[in-house]
Amino acid sequence: PESPPPPYSRLSPNDEQKPLDLSDSTLSYTETEATNSPNVTPGDFSDASTSPDAVKRSHWCNVAYWEHRTRVGRLYTVYEQSVSIFYDLPQGNGFCLGQLNLDNRSETVRRTRSKIGYGILLSKEPDGVWAYNRSEHPIFVNSPTLDIPNCRTLIVRKVMPGYSIKVFDYEKSCLLQHTAELDYADGPYDPNSVRISFAKGWGPCYSRQFITSCPCWLEILLSNNR
């Protein structure tokens, strides 16, 4: 209840991306939880989205995991203020991607999955949603509030290991939804979604033009109930 705020709040708010303090207690709770809890064994993870207490609270996002054009597993509903999304390290509460099975995975997908490691920490804060890159490889992010308004060029941000970024800005989102012209979107458009790929980027600066060409990626579907 009295846990300290995430580390970025102690840093300059002017920087778009901020270093991640891995020694902070808010980020290391999962490792100590897995080590000290007798109920957590290697390869296991507890699903906070299905606990009785969680059902009573409203969720703030759903997370979908994709491999290229195929969604793997069910939607993961998030009720807590923060959630770890990782591969197969026993880290207590969170979304364990290594537990999701799919027949006939390509070698490219297998190699990329092996790079997810500690993955990301997704955190809902008063000013928006932050993503902390806890893996040893970069992540790539796109969202409506990271794009340049009225620009047809997709903006994909590269976030290096140990850094965080505000992937969704609530205030900016409200402004965009009041002023955006819907006829500029080429195809389906969700003003409350964030897309994050692991290790492989996409967009105008990469050989992969679309995120569906990325081996492993997440779709963060934000709830309007903030």
Automatic annotation (TrEMBL):
Name recorded for this polypeptide: SMAD6 protein
Q: Which SMART domains match?
A: DWB
Gene symbol here is Smad6
Q: Which PROSITE patterns does this one have?
A: MH2
Give the record's GO biological process terms. Answer: anatomical structure morphogenesis; BMP signaling pathway; cell differentiation; regulation of transcription by RNA polymerase II; SMAD protein signal transduction
For the region Disordered, give the residue spans: 1-53
Q: Does the keyword Transcription regulation apply?
A: yes
* Record's compositionally biased regions (Polar residues): 23-40
